[in-house]
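Practice problem 4.
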């Protein structure tokens, strides 16, 4: 095994770096697998990283140059797959970590993709629709040689949506001189999108939480759920869990959350959020910060906002039985040992939020064959994948006597390593 491996969590100074957290977990799983040193050397690094500078004519008439990235981590199991995020704090380290997480996520649910991720440093909330379109089209044109249905298939992520994907699809299609729907997923249904895609990540969280409740012989009506986040993962996940009979006692947006131990009317709360863009003034609930919300005593905690929410600084105060990670990387590697010592059952992000990439795979398949499924078919097939993957993960963890996060990484790395070994190294 390579001498650069580390057995324990990353040093505290590096804790906030998502790539360091990902690599710490990768190294631990690789060591437990006794991964061949040559395979380790290949799999620990991305296949390709692209950095681009994107000139955009703003509404003022002036040109502003934005910085963007695309990291393609692995192609062993198929085309790369991963979202594109727009945010002022995007970094290459974050994108690199997210690309690797996509590789492991696809492998955990046995979807034939590798991992990729993209990002542009910008503040989309301060940009007009026209500026966002020009930014997106120029960014897509910079990626044109490395994306495509057989190469790399982008999708929406933080602050991007189906409109963003439609612009990318159109830009790619104009260069190809014919319509190529399968170049992206997460598109509008009328442009080749899949039914059930928007709800897929939140629905996937529901499916794995249902399986965890069976494991612990708990029922939805007696299960208190806290959800951090109210977007496509948190909001939809909370809505679906509410409909399934769970008692959702807290939910938040980026500004803070609301809490009621008797349960929150989630449809009403989300409607209030849509109407006012805030949970402020929502009746019959206590206001609290996102940090406070994470520490509420509950049965299921669903961090569905962003990275690094549970760290070595607050992990001791996390007070749930089941942690279902709806976001990518919400828990740092330094917090893992604390959660394990506390006996918290973790459904790791690379499984818990894999519903989105699973239905993205379904969308890609439907685009390529030109035949589209009914929503109940999509949801049924998603449930089959998520339930089977959860049970396989639990059995793997029990067989190897490791925690569920380590088991998820071991399972994913083992699958990618097998394909890499069988294909061989072209050199």
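Answer key:
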């Amino acid at each position: 095994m390579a001498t650069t491996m580390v057995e324990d969590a990353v040093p505290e100074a590096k804790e906030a770096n998502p790539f360091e957290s990902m690599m710490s977990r990768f190294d631990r799983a690789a060591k437990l697998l006794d991964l061949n040193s040559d395979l380790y050397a290949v799999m620990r690094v991305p296949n390709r990283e692209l950095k681009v500078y994107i000139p955009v004519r703003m509404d003022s008439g002036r040109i502003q140059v934005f910085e963007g990235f695309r990291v393609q981590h692995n192609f062993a199991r198929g085309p790369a797959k991963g979202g594109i995020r727009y945010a002022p704090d995007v970094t290459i380290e974050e994108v690199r970590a997210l690309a690797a997480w996509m590789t492991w996520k696809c492998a955990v649910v046995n979807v034939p993709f590798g991992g990729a991720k993209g990002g542009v440093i910008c503040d989309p909330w301060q940009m007009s629709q026209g500026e966002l379109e020009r930014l997106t089209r120029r960014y897509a044109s910079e990626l044109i040689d490395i994306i495509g249905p057989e190469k790399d298939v982008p999708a929406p992520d933080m602050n991007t949506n189906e409109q963003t994907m439609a612009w990318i699809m159109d830009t790619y299609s104009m260069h190809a001189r014919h319509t190529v729907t399968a170049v992206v997923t997460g598109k509008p249904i009328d442009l080749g999108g899949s039914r059930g895609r928007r709800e897929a990540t939140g629905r996937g969280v529901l499916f794995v939480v249902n399986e965890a409740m069976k494991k612990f012989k708990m029922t939805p009506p007696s299960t208190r759920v806290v959800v951090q986040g109210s977007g496509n993962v948190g909001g939809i996940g909370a809505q679906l869990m509410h409909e399934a009979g769970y008692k959702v006692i807290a939910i938040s947006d980026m500004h803070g959350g609301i809490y009621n131990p008797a349960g929150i009317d989630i449809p009403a709360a989300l409607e209030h959020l849509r109407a006012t863009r805030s949970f402020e003034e929502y009746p019959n609930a206590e206001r609290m910060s996102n940090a406070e919300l994470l520490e509420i005593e509950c049965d299921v905690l669903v961090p569905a906002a962003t990275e690094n929410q549970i760290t070595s600084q607050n992990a001791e105060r996390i007070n749930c039985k089941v942690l279902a990670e709806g976001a990518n990387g919400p828990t740092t590697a330094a917090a893992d040992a604390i959660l394990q010592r506390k006996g918290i059952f973790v459904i790791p992000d690379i499984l818990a939020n894999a519903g989105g990439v699973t239905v993205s795979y379904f969308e890609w398949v439907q685009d390529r064959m030109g035949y589209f499924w009914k929503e109940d078919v999509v949801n049924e097939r998603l449930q089959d994948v998520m339930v089977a993957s959860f049970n396989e993960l639990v059995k793997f963890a029990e067989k190897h006597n490791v925690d569920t996060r380590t088991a998820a990484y071991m399972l994913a790395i083992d699958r990618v390593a097998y394909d890499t070994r069988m294909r061989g190294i072209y050199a």
